[in-house]
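Support request, priority: normal
Reporter: lab tech (M.K.)
Component: structure prediction queue

Hi team, I submitted a job for UTP--glucose-1-phosphate uridylyltransferase from Kocuria dechangensis yesterday, and the status page still shows it as pending. I've pasted the exact input below so you can check whether something in the sequence is tripping the parser. The sequence length should be 304 residues. Please let me know if I need to resubmit or if it's stuck on your end.
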Amino acid sequence: MTGNNNRRAVRKAVIPAAGLGTRFLPATKAMPKEMLPVVDRPAIQYVVQEAVDAGLDDVLMITGRSKRALEDHFDRVPALEHQLEESGKTAQLRDVQHASDLGEIHYLRQADPMGLGHAVLRAKIHVGDEPFAVLLGDDLIDARDDLLTEMIAVQERTGGSVVALMEVPQEQISSYGCADVTPVEGEDYVKINGLVEKPSPEDAPSNLAVIGRYVLHPDVFEVLENTPPGRGNEIQLTDALQTLAVRDGEGGGVYGVIFKGRRYDTGDKLSYLKANIILASEREDLGPELCAWLKDYTRSLPAD
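Reply from support: The job had stalled in the queue. We restarted it manually and it finished. Here are the results:
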C-alpha cells in the first residue's frame, strides 16, 4: 500500500492505568501497580519514556481510584529539588526532574472498570479525529527495540490500525488475544484477518499473541461505542479491532508488526523479577557487582 499525504500524523499516546493490580497484592493494596519499581524508577515511567522517544509527547493516562501517586510522580516537587540541589546531589536531582519534564501528561478517570475497550473509549474527547497510540503499562519494551516507531510508520502507510504481535508457545496462547494473519507481499508487516480473545490452544488460529502496543485509527471510537460487553462482561478492544479488520476503505483494516525483541511483562511476578535483574545487570553502576553476585549465587543452587 502507498502512503496518503492527507493522513494525520500520530502525535498522542494513551496509557490505560486503571487496573487494580490484584496479582501483586498485598504490595498493591495502597500503591498503584504501575508505581512498582523496576530497578530505581516506577514501571510506568518506562512506558511514558517509550512514548516520548517515539515522538509522542502528548500523553493521556486513564487512571482510577487510588491512582494519585501516578500524578504525583510526574509532577514537580520544588522542596525536594531544592534540598537535592543544596546537598549537591546533582545526579538524583537530574533523575527527579527528568520524570516531570518528559512531556505533556494529562489524566482522566475511568470510573467503572469495564475493560480495556472502555478505557480507550474514555480517551475520545482528548484524542479527537486523529490516529493515536495505546501503550499498556504492564508491558515494558526494551528501549533498544524501536517497536512503537515501526508501528507508527505502518499506520501512516496503511491508514488502518496496527497491533503488536509476538510468537508465544502454543500452550500459552490462552493467556492472550490471538491473531489470524496473512503475509503482505513485499512488506514487514502482516494483514490481520481476525482476532480471538484468549482462545484454547486447540482453537487458536496461530501462536501470534497480541501484546500491549497499538496504533489505532480514530474510527475505533465509533466502533467501541457500539460494541457490547464481551468476555468477562467487559468492552473488549479485541472485539472492536475484529470489526475494523473486515472494514474496507479509510480507517478499515488491521495490521500486525511481529515483535522479536525484548519484552517484560511486569504484571506477572516472575517476569517482573526477571525485568529487574536483567535491566539492573546491564547498567554500568549496578551491573558488574550484580553479575558477579549472580554467578556466585547460581553456583550455590541445587542441581536439577
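The chain has eleven helices and 13 strands. The domain at 12-267 is CATH 3.90.550.10 (Spore Coat Polysaccharide Biosynthesis Protein SpsA; Chain A). Let us know if anything else looks off. Ticket resolved.
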